[in-house]
Each structure stands twice: as C-alpha cells, then as structure tokens.
Amino acid sequence: MIKLESRKGETLVQISLSIGILMVAGAVAYYFLYLLPQQNSLKLVSSGPNVSNSNEQAQQPTLPPKPQAQSQGPIKGSSYNPPLPNTSSGEIVQSEVEPFKKVVFKVFCYTNGQLHSTGSGFSKNIPGVGKVLITNKHVITTNDCGINNFENGDSVWNIDTASISFWNDLTDQAILPIFPAGNKAMQTKPYQTDDLPTIDSVANASNCPAKIPTDSSIIIMGYPASTSGFVSFGPLTVTRGVVSAYSYPPMSGSIAQNYDSMRDDYLPDTNYYVDAQIDSGNSGGLALSKNNGKLCLLGIPTWVSLTGNFQAPGIVQSMNNIMYVKK
Length: 327
Known about the structure:
By secondary structure, the chain is an alpha+beta fold. It has six helices and 14 strands. The protein is elongated.
C-alpha cells in the first residue's frame, strides 16, 4: 500500500521506491517462474539427459539386448563352420543326387543302321538275372539298341532285346540284360559287366512308400530331346519339382483299352503328376523323392499329359507299380 502524506516531495520519493521494488520483485519472479523452466525443458529435448552439477546419475535409455547369432554347425575355436545342408528334411541337395548320375543311361535304337529313336533308362542288379536296364517298353522300338553314359567315361553298352522281360503287363516297363558292346554271339550269359555301375551299387535306395504326399520334392533324370537332341549321345539332364497330384493307373496304350473292366486298386500305388519338366526322351529315366531323410526311388517318367491348354504336367509311374508282381 502506498501512503500519501502532506509533504509533496516525500510522498513522490516513497512512490518511486515502491514502484522500483515492485518491478525488481516482478523481474525476479518472472525469471524463476517462467524463464528458468523453459531453459531446462529445451536442454532435455535438444541435448538428451540433463547432467547437472549434483551427484545424480543421468538416466540412459535402455536398449534391447543384441540378438546372438545361432550357429547351425559346430564351432571350433574362433572359426565358424557353415551349416551343413538339412538332408533330414524333404529338400533334395546336389550331393545326394550325384551318385545316381552314373546309373542313368541314354537309350538309342537303330533300324537299318539309322537312328530310329532315343529314350532313357537306369541300370539295376537283379539277383538271379544280373545287371539289367530298366526302362519303358515304348522306348525299345527295334531289336538293335544300346546305351551310354558319359558320367562313367566314354562307355557304350548293348542291351539284349531278345531277352526282354516284364514284371507285369499293367505298366509300361521293360527289363533288358546289359552286355558289353561288340559281337553278342561271342558272349555268353551271364554277361561280363563287372565294371558297370548299378543303382544298387552306387546308392542303397529303396522304393518310396506308396502315395507319397503331394508337394514332396522330386528329381527327374534323363536325356530329353530338348537338351540332347536326336542323336545317340548327349548330356544327362536333371530337373527339379514337386508331386502335384495323383494319377490313378493305368493310363495309356493297350492297357487303357481294358481300363473300364479293371479296379482302381489293382496296382498297389498311384502314379504321380509332377511339375518337373519332362520332355520326349525322358521316358524310361529315373524319378527320385525323399522319405525319412533319405532318397528313394519314386518311379519312371513315362507320359506327358496333353489335356490342358497350358504347360503339360508329366506323369511318373510309381516304382511300386512298375515292380508289382501279382500273387
């Protein structure tokens, strides 16, 4: 409160002092109540945690722990060994396929000294019979046929078409003894084929179980015309894919004429539609899949379905049907 007295000069001095004191007090209050908090808040935003002269430890933000790399292979010392392929899964890796390349052959048949047809087949050792070629019956078009496989070097063998045999008459398959190239009349059975590898000697693979699941990985091996051409030699082709669907046998040729009178369950297994590329010349080759972490013999690539308007799926005859012997 400002006190007014009669003396004019003293009153004016007191008013001036009072106003001055009020202005100083207001300035001090403005600084502490407004400016100082604003400066502190700007420091927090622009410079991270506010480190004062006090003994308080500034809080640092807590970061999530860095994930540790998980090794899938053994670690010795400070050296990291890359993980091995997961061969226990359904994936088929190249190292598993390599041994089979030695036993898949190109089949070529001649008539009057001219190449007549080509196809594929694989070698197998049948107890009591010897080393034979397994292929499709429709691949053997003449009585003068041979096989070769350049994975084994420049080796050419003949097949005994006069001794052709079959496991059954419901599937398109043929069993033909193999003998060394040369004059067959001078050779006696069993033919000397000690240096000929077979699927039994390079890989202890059994037949796949019946009706393996769709989407199972597969490998097709053979000599399609698209890569080897219409000649008696050419490179082995390996294509990959999956089982797309089931095809209930029988499917073609004279077998199909009797299909209506046969039961669907006459053969023990289905055949398979596959999306791996199959071309003319692949017939009689080898189809592999995987069961319990190990490659198994799925069957023989035999037909291409031509009923669609787009890419035609291939059909693999099940090995269980190929080797079926009715009791």
